[in-house]
Amino acid sequence: MTTRPSFLRLLAGTTALSCAFALPAMAQEEPVELGTITLEYEGAEAVGNAVNPNTLSGMKTATSLTEVPQSVSVVGRDFFAKEQPRKVDQILNGIAGVQSQLYGYDSDTNWFYIRGFNSFDTGAFMDGLSLFSYSFGTFYIDPFLLERVEVLKGPASMLYGASSPGGVVNYVSRLPDGSTGTALSFSVDSEGQARASVEGSGSDGDTLAWTYGIQATRQDGHGMFDAGFEGVAYGAVTKSFDDGSRLTFHLSYTKMDEDHVGGQFLPYYGTVEAAPFGYLADYFNAGSPGLDEYKRDQLIATGIYRRDVAGWAMVDTFRVGYSDLKEHFLYPWGYTTGQIPTPTADLNLVNFAHQSKATILQNDLRFTREFDNGAVRHKLLFGLDMRQYRLDQWQAVGSSIPLDPVNPDYSVVQPPGLFAPYIDNISTQKQLGLYAQDQIEWGDGWIATLNGRYDIVWSDVGDRVTGGTDLSRRDTAFTGRVALAKKMGDVTPYVTFGTYFNPQTLSVSSLLADPETGYQAEIGLKWQPNESSLITVSAFDITRKDVSQSYVNGGVFDSRTLGKLRSKGIEIEANYALNDEWRMKLAATKMSVEIEEFGADPSIIGKVPQSVAESFGNLQLLWTPAAVEGLELRAGTRYLGSSWADNANTLKVGDAWLLDIGASWAINDQWSADFNVTNLADEKYVSSCQTSWGVSSCWQGEGRVVSLGVTSRF
Length: 714
Fold this sequence. Notes:
It is a single chain. By secondary structure, this protein is mainly beta. The protein has a single domain (3-26, 46-713), classed as TonB-dependent receptor, beta-barrel domain (Maltoporin, Chain A), CATH 2.40.170. The protein is built from 4 helices and 36 strands. It has helices spanning 3-26, 77-80, 88-91, 157-160, and strands at 54-55, 63-64, 72-76, 98-100, 112-114, 117-118, 124-126, 129-130, 146-153, 167-173, 181-189, 194-203, 208-219, 228-240, 246-258, 293-309, 312-335, 347-373, 376-398, 423-442, 446-463, 469-486, 491-502, 516-527, 534-553, 556-577, 582-597, 615-623, 631-640, 643-644, 652-653, 656-666, 671-678, 686-692, 695-700, 705-713. The protein has a 22-stranded antiparallel barrel. It has a 5-stranded mixed sheet with strand order 3-9-10-7-8. It is globular.
């Protein structure tokens, strides 16, 4: 086929075009005195204490939260670092509309649903570029790499092309800001995890700035058989040229070598409801110490080039990413006597292994310009976005010996051999998108936003199991957004309508189906009563058509077409300063998610899709007593509503209330300490369940974890 090399040449050519614009900057003969370098990243800088920061996620232009006509949440590092999150999905717990950690504490993957729809595969972005994943061809992002986490809720295809209808989570990298200093951090927790890191930054005073970080983590606890290792390193440098243009390069490397945690893929009876023997132990691990293996090598290189071209502000973001993941483990697959066990039933085990090598190449070139047309102000955006994702994978299973759920004998030698791979293929997906946006301001605070994007997506699967059976398809889609907002003092109401599309997963069977399509209507209000407070209320109605639902089966993503889903609800998010010492943070979500069409089984029409909690929320109070400078005390509660383990809504998963406390103390300019306790009461609960091919799998929620961290800056 000629499409692949042609597409790669176009991808490389776009990057080369932006580099060509850089040549005049590098060839400048008369240097301009810049003074001490101060770097701003136009919506990607440190958030600090700002409640209404600029963001790029909702518009691809630096726009304050109150002026984005869609619900957007931003959590800055200055806030989330105090809570010492081990994973990004822990940060997402405090965001309205986001149901995170559906599969308990999973040390190697960030899991989240947005507005009732799984978004961890096609809704994960980093610095505005997709971290698309399929099956095990994933990219894992550690909080150590991030300056902020942003969530754009609802369809985002008008900006990003193929993506989840629920929304996108945009990870924003730590970039040089011209500051100088070094920080050493150490932390431990009650599960046996220990972490040490060093970060540094500096500049030459006028044109060059850099930053770097190295973190090493001893992974342990949560039912692991043996302690593991996670290493994360990053480095970034920004060069400012005499004409005002800037080039930033960011490189990160992630290394993981660990065992799997427990509490996963457990049967409904024995986890949610009692089995004849009672309940499975906390963090029950059905694996085998002799076989358990998880290894990841991941490298991501990102460049961002900015300059002015004939009155237009040009930004070109390009990336190369590579992930090599190898995994072997045993997981439960129901009981030997069926879904409901007898008193002497053992757990069936699946002996599963895979190796998945994913590569992603991306380039997003965009131009922005502001101008007045009489009494009307326009901010125009035009862009060309390209992505190629390639996954080389094999998956295989082998025989196994069942395990006693009451007295597991881990000394039993499990058969190490595997059968011939049932999946062995190379899958690719290429996307080319042209998009435009106009932010129009006129009159007394009126703001209209118009978006349009046209995408072409090529999907290919080369199957080596069947002797080279290939499937290729080409899909096109036009998506858009129309929005209107009105600034009325400190209140900004808005209304928006947007469409989306998302091609089916990269397998031979699913590529026979048309891409998902759908739309969202949203109305909302953003109220900023003062500089220290922001309240957002939004109501949404999303229709999702041609849906293929994923089932996590030992990590294998089985899929079934549901037909049509609808999610409608209301969200409230508040960051409110009660006075100079007290602050309240609130995130509350109430949804109704229903299966509206399903040809294969009409009996589930009107039911709630499995795993989806229709109610959840978070309330936190923060106290910074004036009597103790630098001290912050936190107390909060999280609520996870009930959900269903099956689409027929016959197996219910109960709700849970969880309590968290924390304290942070900036002792002086050099030393600070953070103390946190999550799930203070050690509440026993189940994060979610799902039923795949008649066998239920459930995930135990994370119990109490006590952590302490100390940081020294110099």
